[in-house]
Amino acid sequence: MTQRSGILAAGNMLVDHVHCIDQWPQPGWLVEIVSSEKATGGAPLNVLLTLAKMQTGLPLAAAGLLGEDSDGDYICRNLDDFHVDRTAVRRSALAGTSMSLVMTQKSGQRTFFHAPGANRLLDLDAFETLQTTHRIFHLGYLLLLDRLDSPDPAFGTRSARLLAQMQQRGYRTSLDLVSRQGDPRFQTRVLPALRWLDYLVINELEAGEFTGLALRDAGGCLDAGKLTGAAHQLHRLGVRRRVVIHAPEGAYGLDKSGEGLWLPSWPLAARDIVGSVGAGDAFCAGVLYASHESWSLAETLELAHACARFNLLCANAIDGARPLTEVKAFIERARSGDIPGAGSGGERGLRPDDVR
């Protein structure tokens, strides 16, 4: 039997046109753009290019649909530059490459204006003959893949059918969602997929929308009991190996053994945050690499937090990524207390002892 290794990521591929501004203007008023840049975006590209820049040595591959335009060319060049296999990346003349206009404020707060483009057309036919030797298949983002989000008579959704097929082909499967507050489709479009998942890595907003639990109290603090309850609920609904819910304060992970762990984020002063575009995907890249390598839950969350922390130091989704050796060195320094504040319980009231 062929030894599986590496990560195949599929789904939303787009170009982020990132503009940094001092503050969001009032309606009818003007604000100057301080700086602008272009970068690849979307779950598959953010995860893959973060891992490539980390120099993990894992085989990496992408699958998705691009337009026949300059943004599509730009994505292909980036994949080639980082030695990511794009054999399964198709081009279409029926729609342009997906793009997002991202407005980032000094605080790191970001606002997206999104044009779905070719991602809306990505469907099961793109995966019919897809069979690689990668170990993990990562799909993102549900609720932004119109064809795959559509109903399926046997599996509930076409995305659930896809994940089932990929599991049956020998992959461990992983899923990411998009943060869409109040979207009534969280239950109908995501629930069917959970029984075909090995890994689920989402933020507290998505976890709250999906489970129906208010994970923050009226004062804005994470509710420890409900956070734990959300992870266990997602596990009971089908996720086989690992559920991770992350927030600015930290993350809670739950393994198939029943082991649960809260770990606060590594500290970072607000003045040092350049942007938060792709921070969740950088966190996910850390979880997937550590899970691929069978790291403990604590080691996994440490790495994921470090990946997210480095991401926050740059405006786009991948420029903050650092080689794995540098990330590990940072973690060792933080553990030993060489980085001020490391090991604190996070912000806004939640302490490590509050969650087990």
From TrEMBL:
Parts forming coiled coils: none
Record-linked InterPro entries: PfkB_dom, Ribokinase-like
Record-linked Gene3D superfamilies: 3.40.1190.20
Carbohydrate kinase PfkB domain residues: 27-319
Gene Ontology MF terms: kinase activity
Alphabetical UniProt keywords: Kinase, Transferase
Pfam families registered for this protein in UniProt: PfkB
Record GO cellular component, one term: cytosol
PANTHER family: RIBOKINASE (PTHR10584:SF166), SUGAR KINASE (PTHR10584)
Protein name as annotated: Sugar/nucleoside kinase (Ribokinase family)
